[in-house]
Design brief:
This protein is mainly beta and 231 residues long. The protein contains one helix and 19 strands. The radius of gyration is 20 Å and the shape is elongated.
Length: 231
């Protein structure tokens, strides 16, 4: 099996220049959930692809975790492709992470490990470049590191951040609500029933730490449903 470096070199994909190990400081991308925009496409090439090349739709939800060690990327791809076949749903998880000298971030791993935990020769190397309004630009390659040609090129796909609430228990009678600081301009609201007749503002203090906004709420009150909303 070729390693990732030789696979990228054989595919003419120059991601390896100028990378160095992860540093906790200076990360410009925040942990959170990102989404490709409608109409996004990728290019698939290979010996087994009809006519050797095709452009296919590409829809993915990407979760970045910078608080973990190592930082990680998880991509839920609604219409992944493989060797010219029909699209299928696939979860892709990174195994290694690098910060590049040019301010980009790279995630590598086995494209099919969720389907084949023992490992495959289908590898990926994806770069994320911080963009305006908390988004990112996605470039990279997925490909076969064995004896024939197959690869998918991701070129300049725009990832936009999605607001997402996370709940963790903060004590016997409270929970902590968290969301990315990309959405610091959003407000936390609650309702006591769904569908809601109206939403009320959560007035608890908001703290900011590690790229997240945090609010602690009491669980002793009546059941509540929460949402984030941009005023």
């Amino acid at each position: 099996m070729k390693n990732l470096a030789s696979f990228l070199a054989s595919a003419g994909f120059g991601l390896l220049a100028g990378l160095f190990p992860w540093r906790a400081s200076g990360a410009a991308l925040a942990s959170g959930v990102y989404q490709t925009q409608p109409g996004a496409t990728v290019e698939e090439r290979g010996d087994r692809v009809p006519n050797g090349r095709r452009v296919v739709p590409f829809s993915a939800t990407v979760t970045l975790e910078f608080e973990t060690t190592p930082p990680s990327l998880t991509a839920l791809i609604a219409n992944a492709v493989l060797e010219g076949g029909a699209p299928f749903a696939l979860t892709v998880r990174s195994s290694t992470w690098y910060q590049l000298e040019n301010g980009q971030y790279r995630f590598d791993g086995d494209y099919l490990r969720d389907l084949y935990p023992a490992g495959t020769q289908y590898l990926f190397a994806w770069e994320l470049t911080p963009a305006s309004e908390g988004g990112a630009i996605w470039n990279g390659l997925v490909g076969w590191a064995g004896g024939h040609a197959w690869y998918v090129t991701v070129s300049n796909l725009v990832l936009v951040p999605r607001a997402q609430l996370r709940l963790t228990r903060a004590g016997a009678g409270s929970v902590q609500m968290a969301w990315a600081t990309n959405f610091a301009d959003h407000v936390l609201e609650y309702a006591t029933t769904l569908p809601a007749e109206g939403w009320s503002l959560v007035t608890n203090a908001v703290a900011t730490t590690g790229g997240r906004c945090l609010v602690t709420v009491d669980t002793a009150a009546a059941p509540r449903f929460f949402r984030l909303r941009r005023p």
